[in-house]
Design a protein that fits this description.
globular; mainly beta; 4-stranded antiparallel β-sheet; about 300 residues; Neuraminidase; 1 helix; 24 strands; about 10% helix
Amino acid sequence: MTRLGIGTTWRSRAIALLLVVGCDDPTRPEALDVPPFVFVSSDEGAPALYRFEAGTITRLSAPGTDDRDPHSAAGRIVFTSRRDGNAEIYAADLGLAGQLRLTNGTATDDAPALDPTGTTVAFVSSRSGTPRVWLMDVTGANPRPLETGSATFVPEGSPAWSPTGDRLAFASTRTNASQVFVVVAAGGSAIQLSHEATGAFTPAWSADGGSIAYVILSGGPGVMRVPASGGGDATPFALDDGGISDPACRGSICLAVTGALDAAGDLIAISASGRTRRSILARAADDRQPAIIVP
């Protein structure tokens, strides 16, 4: 009986040890629970916004509106629309009801990003003659350029708010090839994070604000990741022969587009570590620009 008791105890401990080791196994696939998100698709003609939730796709845009560049925060969605022949920025609720046009002019206004509190929109505007990062209230009031520390004739793009809303990442060509920079939300001198020979584009923050993913074109495109503090080197995050682009991260998951070089992008989910990925949408339509919905 004693031997049986010792044997049973040892076996229980061994099983428990295997479970612990299995959970820490770096080769073990990670769970990928895909949250609701909005994306752009040309499935029914002109680019339009669609919502994906629990395996169901719902069209949000009205026919012919040419909507793109979605971003969600604080229960709202901001996006770019070319419905009137010029790129302008709109805000709406999560079902795209109650749409409010935020910009109205001859300049190109696009790439909007709503801050975590839902009060301020960062966007790219050519109203000063060169595409630059601007800010405005979520009502469209009080538009003002963001001071980033470079000459106003240097193009900028792809603004992205940090999870705490105190910093903005963006792309700039101030050092020739496009690179990713970070600046405090109030404006100031930006810190250069990327140093890619072929350029770095479309930054996306990690959930904890500790790192930033961005797209490179060399051998891809693919996605790299760099510390947001500027104190470390970039490392590969998601690379694929078919190309990966359009990263969007929240919580323990990132969404992205594979087949980025083709005319039919497919949406995938990637774990925050970059080790595990799986297809979400693989269809004939060109699906791109995923934006995780933030209620």
